[in-house]
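thread: overnight batch results

M.L. [08:02]
morning all. the overnight job finished for the chain we discussed friday. pasting input first so we're all looking at the same thing
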Amino acid sequence: MKYIAILIGKIFILIGKIFKRGSSLPGKIALKLDHKLLYQLKYPSNKILITGSSGKGSTTKLIAKTLRKENYRVCHNASGSNLEWGIATSILAKTNLCGKVNADYLVLECDERYVKKISTAICPTHLVVTNLTKDQPPRQHDIDEIYTAITKRLLSYTTIITNIDEPYLRKFELEFKNKIVYYSLAKNKYSYEKQIFENLNTYYCPNCFTRLEYDYYNFETLGKYSCPNCDFKYYKPNIIGTNLDLEKGTMKINYEEVLIGGYLLYHAYNTLCAYATLRSLNISHKHIINAFNEINKIHNTSFVSHDKTFYPLSCKAENATTYNQAIFRTIQDPSTKSIVLGWQEISRRYKHYDVSWLYDIEFELLNKDNVFNFYCCGPDKDNLKKRLLLAGISEDKIITDNNPYVIKDLVMSDEASCIYGILNFDYVSIFKDAFKEEK
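M.L. [08:03]
and the structure it wrote out:
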């Protein structure tokens, strides 16, 4: 049955390519024919599974593209379909009829809920955890539940790669004996000593549950922490990003400047995560830096149109932390600005229509004199307006419409010199199309 499932799966992959449709259907059909199919394939010796509440797709692509630049064959779910069927489709595309995956590296983005199932089947050599935050509340519930799901089938020989700046992620170290590769972002010009965010993911020491103290914060709970009750504290790992410059979209790793592919803090952390993973695979520092600078230079998304500078900042719906990072980046800029907010849809994975996560976003930080207007677009424009009003923002400054193209003339005549788009990723290209000057 294994060989029939592989053959049928590959036929449906070919059909999908012809009609340019579907990334998960071939995997679904193959696993219906043989639900143990993924257990029976012959995988390469290096199997990297990347998961986390946000950033896993970007990090996975950076790792896969760099490995390809090193002339390695990579099996990667590039379409972003990160549930069991989509992953199965990507693997089948690289598998021959005898069940051998023709790749040197398996590099798979995986939804947190599916790590247990995929891990059991492929037995990863590396597990990369970008972060664990409040995310998709109706589905993910809380970070403890997600952590438990990720670690349910954690193998003793799997190397864990994660961020030491987040104290919650040290639970891996406290509860397991796996090898752990940590990365960190050094204190920088954006760091602050007094917490400015209220709705945090976690406050407490994962060892003794005492409230942590911080020397500084990089963002929310990321920073240099220590427990006043036990010996749990931050320490510097081998991989540290320094000289962060979000305006330029750069930082330094081992004294060499590297492009981070954007203007938000998570771009720096995603870059560090990918770097730490590649170094654990013995890819040379120089080659990684060169690859990152080539890959990330095409991600310069800001543009000038009609004498205004536009900054489309991509966020993830149902994840307040990514929106807070966009807000954090926006308030660093002292220029006069107006802000476009919106998305097309919240989630395709369930029927719940939940907007509670809007109230974890610190919109209050945008209630400043140098922010002129707020343009709320899309199906949740009214929910956005209600949240902004609750943040103390004057109703006179809030403009709503279903379509960002409709508000184009208003935005173009806005007195602000900068226009920031704090947007779910499904609105980023729409934002660019609406406001880029026609040549």
